[in-house]
């Protein structure tokens, strides 16, 4: 977005320089006013072209929201303490998204294997190492011990974590 704005400004400056040179070169005649009309049309098109591109690409809401987000993030980052807080918030958001993605992956893969998952709890260390995975399942089949061991084995092999960090709770519901 900023690069587009820079290109637009540089184009306007080039047109301004071109118009100044054109005024110096053109003789005083009746053609001069027609040339100025043509140059005015080109300048007007250049000025409104970013707006036309927004309407043409249907990215108005996206562009406006990105400008507002950039502006609000720039306003919020005023000094180092704000920057540290901002970075911490960003880190927490990334960590939460990572945990949600991991939960969805575990739930979907266990569901494909016939395990009814009620809830997945994941605890992460600061360096994103998995400290604990707790999977709460609906009552498994009669061979529930083998089913639970399948769940544990799948999680261990898929995410390369120790058995002691995996917990499967069978709900009686």
Shape, per Cα inertia axes: rod-shaped
For the sheet with most strands, the description reads: 3 strands, mixed
- Under CATH, the homologous superfamily of the largest domain reads ANL, C-terminal domain
Instruction: Give, in order, the helices and strands.
Output: HHHHEEHE
**In CATH terms, what is the architecture of the largest domain?**
2-Layer Sandwich
List descriptors.
rod-shaped; about 170 residues
Short description:
This protein is α+β, with helices and mostly antiparallel strands and 173 residues long.
Care to describe what's here?
Helices cover 68% and strands 12% of the residues. The protein has 173 residues and is of the alpha+beta class. It folds into 2 domains: 2-76; 82-170, GMP Synthetase, Chain A, domain 3 (2-Layer Sandwich), CATH 3.30.300. A 3-stranded mixed sheet has the order 1-2-3, covered by helices on one side. A hairpin with a 5-residue loop joins strand 1 (117-124) and strand 2 (130-137). Helix 1 packs antiparallel against helix 2. The two termini are 53 Å apart.
SSE inventory with pairings:
Layout: H1 2-25, H2 31-57, H3 60-76, H4 80-112, E1 117-124, E2 130-137, H5 144-159, E3 166-170
Parallel strand pairs: 2-3
Antiparallel strand pairs: 1-2
Helix pairs in contact: 1-2
């Amino acid at each position: 977005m900023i690069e587009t704005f820079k290109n637009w400004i540089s184009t306007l400056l080039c047109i301004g320089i071109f118009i100044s040179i054109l005024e110096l070169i053109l003789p005083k005649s009746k053609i001069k006013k027609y040339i100025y009309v043509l140059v005015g049309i080109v300048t007007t098109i250049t000025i409104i072209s970013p707006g036309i591109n927004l309407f043409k690409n249907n990215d108005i809401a996206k562009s406006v929201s990105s400008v507002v987000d950039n502006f609000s993030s720039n306003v919020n980052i005023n000094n180092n303490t704000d920057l540290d807080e901002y970075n911490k918030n960003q880190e927490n958001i990334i960590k939460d998204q990572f945990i949600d993605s991991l939960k969805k992956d575990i739930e979907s893969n266990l569901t494909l294997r016939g395990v009814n998952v009620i809830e997945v709890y994941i605890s992460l260390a600061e360096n994103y190492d998995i400290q604990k995975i707790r999977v709460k399942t609906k009552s498994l089949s009669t061979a529930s011990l083998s089913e639970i061991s399948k769940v544990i084995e799948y999680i261990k092999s898929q995410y390369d974590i120790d058995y002691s960090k995996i917990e499967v709770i069978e709900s009686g519901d």
